[in-house]
Structures are given as C-alpha cells and as structure tokens.
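Quick review question:
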C-alpha cells in the first residue's frame, strides 16, 4: 500500500516507521476482569469475617424447646429480665442502674412501653385464627385472678422441668389452660409465625426487632451462642466479630474498662463505663485549651519525630 504526497513522493504505509502491533481490546478487558475477580474472591475467602445468620425465634424453639417454654412462663409470671428491666420498657426497678444517687433510666422514663406477657405471649396467641380451643383457654386465663394464674404457672413450671411432654399434653386442672397455650405458642414459634408477629410494626417496612430481641435475650439459648462465639463482655465481646475474629478495634478502651476494678465487679458497670468514657472524651476535646497539657507535644519533641525527614535536611539553628 502506498500514498502520493503533493510533491509526488511515494511513501509506503505497510510498515510505518513508528511500528505497529495488533491489539485486542475485548481480550485485554476480559483478562483484566477475570484476574481482578479471582483476586477479590480469594482475598474475601481468606480474610473476611463469617457472615453468620441472625438468631431467630424459630431457631430457638426448634433447637431448645425447654428453654423456650420456660422463658415464656417467666414472661407470664413477670420474672423475666424484660419484665423486671425497668425504663425504657416498663416501670420495674429490679435492673435500674445508678450514677451516684441518680438513675439515668428513670430520668429518661418509659419511652418504649412493653408488657412482656401481653406482647410476647398473650397477644400473638390471641391473633391465631380458627382455634376455638385456644381462644377458650385464653379467655379462661385472662379472666382468672392473679393468685390463680400464679398457682397454674408455678405448677406448670415444676412439672415441665421434670416431664416436658407430659406437661404440654396434660389435662390436669392444676395446670389450667397453660398446656394448650404453651403448645400453641411453641407451634407458632416453630413455624416462624411468632417471630414475624413480634417484629411486625403494622406498616410495609418491618424493621423494629426490639420485641423479638428482648424475648430471645430472656432465655439462656442466646447467651450460650454468644459465649460460643466469644461475644460476652468477659470475652472482650465488643471487639470481636462473630466467632474468634477481630472486630471493632476502636472500642478497645471501652471494653477494656469492663475487665478491671471497680467496673468488673460493679452492678452499675454500664453507667460507670459510659461516664468514664464521657469524661475521657471531654478531656480529649479540651486538650487545646488546658495549659500545660496542650504544651506536652512541644516539650516531648513529638513533632521532631513526625517531621524527622524534614529536619534531617533542615536542621534547627542551635
């Protein structure tokens, strides 16, 4: 191939002087994509933390039936942690935390009122349709005196602890309507319906999981899982991912305080740790305004360490 210029000089372009190499853009892009994808998947597999699914009420009821039933009984008789927690869920006082003479919970008040017996047990059972036997049992329970309810709950708890299956199928008057109620609640939980009812907000987006979390936390099943995954406070849980993987390193100081006296043995550890962190954060914010403290970097010559490469070429005058 040749071309003719204005001065009739013939120049060949078959092998131009600047060189020529064939280039397949699609091939190069495909290779680059495959290499990056392979590296991404490999590094994610090796270094990523496990994506552990959330613990559900359905899982709890399926894997630990006794704990589920006994926790439900504790909700009805008002002895569960949720029932005795206090603000922001109810007016109980068993778990109030104090900063000196002041209870921060009481100051905030009950902002999310929850009656565990009604919210976790009686309400969901009452919403089960086409179950006249269950509705009759609920009516009998709700119309009975507090003394009678306590007697039923105490007897059922004792019998269930020794013979679970017999307690759930018993027709004894000493257990009242509880066998029907508890077996229905268990079936509802095992089907996944109880978890859905507790998390339902009545709107299109069901994102409020306060009730199911409180209910699950009242049992021992959730605690055992947290322990097995190194997430308890005594295991530095705040700085762990699920399992023995490193988590949020910026919380090391916060969780460190839980491991030392007097916090480790205090019933008000949560409030004391929070107050301590607020004081330390305040001091850190005020460093530029505190005489003496703000001058420490200058006297310690920290700036020389940071800018050592600069001062190597520009020594300070003596």
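Suggested answer, residue by residue:
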């Amino acid at each position: 191939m040749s071309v003719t210029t204005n001065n009739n000089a013939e120049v060949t372009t078959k092998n131009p002087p600047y060189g020529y190499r064939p280039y397949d853009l699609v091939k190069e892009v495909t290779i680059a994509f495959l290499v990056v994808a392979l590296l991404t998947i490999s590094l994610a597999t090796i270094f990523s933390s496990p994506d552990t699914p959330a613990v559900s009420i359905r899982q709890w009821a399926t894997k630990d039936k006794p704990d589920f039933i006994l926790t439900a009984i504790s909700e009805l008789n008002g002895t569960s942690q949720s029932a005795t927690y206090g603000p922001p869920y109810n007016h109980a006082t068993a778990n109030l935390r104090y900063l000196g003479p002041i209870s921060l919970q009481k100051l905030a008040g009950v902002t999310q009122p929850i009656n565990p017996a009604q919210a976790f047990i009686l309400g969901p059972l009452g919403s089960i349709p086409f179950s006249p036997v269950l509705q009759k049992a609920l009516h009998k329970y709700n119309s009975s005196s507090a003394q009678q309810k306590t007697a039923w709950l105490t007897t059922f708890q004792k019998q269930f602890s020794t013979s679970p299956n017999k307690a759930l199928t018993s027709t004894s008057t000493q257990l009242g309507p509880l066998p029907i109620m508890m077996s229905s609640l268990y079936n509802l939980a095992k089907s996944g319906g109880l978890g859905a009812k507790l998390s339902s907000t009545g709107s299109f987006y069901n994102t409020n999981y306060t009730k199911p979390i409180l209910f699950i936390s009242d049992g021992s099943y959730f605690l055992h899982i947290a322990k097995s995954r190194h997430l308890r406070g005594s295991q530095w849980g705040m700085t762990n991912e699920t399992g023995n993987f490193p988590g949020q390193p910026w919380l090391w100081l916060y969780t460190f305080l839980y491991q030392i006296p007097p916090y480790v043995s205090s019933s008000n550890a949560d409030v004391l740790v929070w107050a301590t962190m607020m004081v330390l954060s305040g001091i850190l914010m005020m460093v530029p305004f505190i005489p003496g403290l703000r001058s420490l970097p200058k006297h310690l010559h920290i700036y020389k360490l940071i800018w050592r490469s600069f001062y190597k070429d520009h020594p300070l005058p003596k």
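Why it works: Residues 1-5 have pLDDT under 50 and may be disordered. Strands lie at 2-4, 10-12, 98-99, 102-103, 240-241, 245-246.
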